[in-house]
Design a protein that fits this description.
This protein has 61 residues and is an all-alpha fold. The chain has two helices and no strands.
Amino acid sequence: MTIFVCMKVLLDITEDKANFVMELLRNLKFVKAQTLSSYKADVLEGVREGVQEAIQIQKGH
């Protein structure tokens, strides 16, 4: 039985390199790449920060 574990990665890429990086990622068969709107990226970043804060609170920091 094979178990696949996936990781999501959010990248900040300069505008002049974004097309190159997305093309590169899309050509990798094991990568599913999609572009997020600025709003969605900001929401995800806020969620990530909230999770990190919750972890620190649980640790007593």
